[in-house]
Amino acid sequence: MTPAVVLGIDTPIGLAIVRSLGRHGVPVTGIARGMAAPGLSSRYLREGLLRADDAQGTLEQLESLSRRLGPACLFAISEGDIALLNRHRDRLAGYRLMFPDARRMDAVLDKHRTYAAARAAGVPVPRTVQPATLDDAAAAAPELRYPVVLKWAEPNEAGILLRRAGLELDKTRYCHDANELLAYLRRFEPVGRYPMIQEYCAGYGLGQFFLVKDGVAHAVFQHRRLHEWPPEGGVSTLCESVGLEHHAALRERSLALLRELDWEGIAMVEYRYDPQRGEAALMEINGRFWGSLPLACHAGVDFPWLAYCLLGNGAAQPQPAYRAGMRCRFMIPETKRLARLLFQPGAVADRQLAFSRGRELLGYLADFLRPSMRYYLFTWSDPAPFLRDLWHVVRR
Hints:
Layout: E1 4-7, H1 12-23, E2 28-32, E3 47-50, H2 55-69, E4 72-76, H3 79-87, E5 95-97, H4 102-109, H5 111-121, E6 128-129, H6 134-140, E7 148-151, H7 155-164, E8 173-175, H8 178-185, E9 196-199, E10 204-213, E11 216-229, E12 235-241, H9 248-260, E13 265-274, E14 279-286, H10 293-299, H11 303-313, E15 327-329, H12 331-343, H13 357-366, E16 373-375, H14 384-395
Parallel strand pairs: 1-2, 1-4, 2-3, 4-5, 15-16
Antiparallel strand pairs: 6-9, 7-8, 7-9, 10-11, 10-13, 11-12, 12-15, 13-14
Helix pairs in contact: 1-11, 5-9, 12-13
């Protein structure tokens, strides 16, 4: 079988890709940033390597692997690595690249372009203001419905500018009135760049996932976020698969949005869904393998293998049936979430959220006994990555 190289086996995403391909007999070479990477212990990894110290060394490492392996499929996990590899596609001619090109990635990383495409495709978006100056924000502030959520339209580019100015980038920031909003935005005056201001959307995270080629969805999956870290929104720590009989109309609009963006490959279209009103609002598109990928694989939609077949070898597979109601949790951030709710509930930035400490603790413990529960790292068939991760956590 065509070999595969996975750049980034330090996370549950990279590990899920290794397991998905390895279970189907694909010889997988994984590249890790350090010895703590759980993917290095997977039984499905043919060869594990430590990554070179810099970008140039990483490219040379991939070129050397290409000469040794011959034609191979190259998977990259992080947006930073995808951007690096896209800048040097000419040096990766021996690989079949399992990630979108720079034009498509730039379109989904820029939220202004994403939202413009969403409006054209009939996808609902939250009310958003992009101030060019502090005066713009001051003029808009009295008209907004609070709380509001602040996000950067281009977080990678903004992160570079803010670091140079000695400022920290908050992925999301909640402001509960106009005074709090303007006080927060003033810190960015020296940079001259400001985050987007979005009106708060109630509900929970709903993810719709696609493998697209030539405008056709060859695999579809969806899940609901039950818990996140931090609790007000971030990494999914507990999620549940949702059957395709739900949200069918929204899914069609999601696919229309991807077609509007001329998308090819893997994508996650993420919404905030309010079950009381039956309304959804687009948050973002992830143009890469997403953090909760282990849930899709456990439920029966083996996206890495399906992408390998379709994009790597031109062999489309039928849409797999999958199990609805399957749950999956990421134990370390899930435990951090529980600790925050038990001991620091006042630190939760979203004041709209209400938690019962007793219910949270009982739910955390009861989920160990839930038959439908699976885990981001631990599997009975491949336990060593979990044990490796646990050992390094204890050491730290």
